[in-house]
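Query structure, 321 tokens:
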């Protein structure tokens, strides 16, 4: 009986060892969820020459809507993702197992018009402004902006289901004023000389007379299980992405060329013109915890539900080992 028991235990041991080995081998692809727009631009150089990290290749999953990225995160189908910081906080407060690693794209939202009757902020009084996503980042920031500038009697229109439809409506004069992000703003201006920027949706009023920018608009997040199990890979991914963001600004002509090659933008001159307004700058979240907190407080004060009913605790911010 002892021999049988020993033999049985030996088989079980090697079976478990084999199962563990198989589990580790299953992750040979690192999936990163990427939103169209400035986020894609921030990854341009990494996409051009994606490194093989610890035997794992990088796969970029591009989506046009943050909700699509969110759906994949809910299913644990992504190791990393970039999405609005507000949405990242909301998911964290709903116990979705991701943490914020960095802010790669800062403020890129602009109030844009196609009519000569609206040239400055004061002209917005009594007008209708179209925004994609009621309660989303553009909507909340627009309302706070109008409040800070004492602009009354503005009707906010939420009838468009995505940013591309809204941009086309502005181009075809079906709407007069809209909140649009780069690089779409530059693309629209290349197609019509009537389209002009009235104002950038900045947060100057919240800077507390300091030089710190709190417009932490986007969050680069990591699945916590991945960062725990693959700390070296995690570090190398962050380094590679940070380098890609830096190269966007250091090598604008090459960046523009890459964007055209990947059909992200149709024209190099348009891409080149849009880059300074995309505000791409990779900053680790642990270094800007207070700025992230101040940014999220704007949404919490507007409507706590936008970030999941409460301010996220400190574990929302990824702390490097």
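Result returned for the query:
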């Amino acid at each position: 009986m002892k021999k049988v028991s020993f033999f049985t235990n030996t088989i079980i041991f090697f079976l478990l060892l084999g199962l563990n080995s198989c589990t580790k081998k299953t992750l040979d692809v690192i999936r990163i969820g990427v939103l169209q727009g400035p986020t894609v631009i921030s990854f341009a150089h990494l996409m051009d020459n994606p490194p093989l990290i610890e035997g794992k290749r990088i796969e970029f999953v591009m989506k046009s809507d943050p909700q699509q990225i969110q759906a994949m995160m809910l299913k644990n189908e992504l190791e990393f993702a970039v999405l609005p910081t507000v949405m990242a906080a909301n998911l964290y407060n709903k116990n979705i197992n991701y943490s914020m690693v960095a802010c790669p794209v800062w403020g890129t939202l602009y109030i844009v018009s196609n009519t000569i009757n609206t040239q400055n902020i004061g002209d917005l009084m009594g007008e209708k402004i179209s925004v994609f996503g009621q309660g989303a980042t553009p909507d909340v920031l627009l309302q706070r902006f109008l409040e800070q500038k004492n602009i009354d009697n503005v009707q906010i229109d939420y009838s468009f289901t995505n940013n591309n439809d809204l941009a086309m409506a502005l181009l075809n004069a079906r709407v007069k004023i809209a909140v649009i992000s780069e690089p779409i703003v530059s693309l629209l201006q290349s197609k019509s000389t009537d389209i002009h920027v009235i104002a950038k949706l900045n947060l100057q009023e919240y800077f507390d007379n300091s030089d710190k920018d709190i417009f932490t608009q986007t969050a680069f997040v990591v699945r916590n299980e991945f960062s725990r199990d693959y700390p070296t890979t995690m570090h190398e991914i962050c380094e590679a992405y940070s380098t890609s963001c830096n190269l966007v600004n250091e090598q604008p002509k090459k960046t523009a060329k890459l964007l055209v090659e990947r059909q992200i933008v149709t024209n190099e001159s348009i891409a080149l013109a849009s880059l300074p307004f995309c505000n791409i700058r990779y900053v680790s979240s642990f270094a800007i915890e207070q700025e992230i907190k101040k940014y999220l407080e704007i949404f919490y004060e507007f409507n706590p539900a936008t970030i999941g009913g409460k301010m996220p605790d400190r574990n929302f911010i990824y702390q490097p080992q």
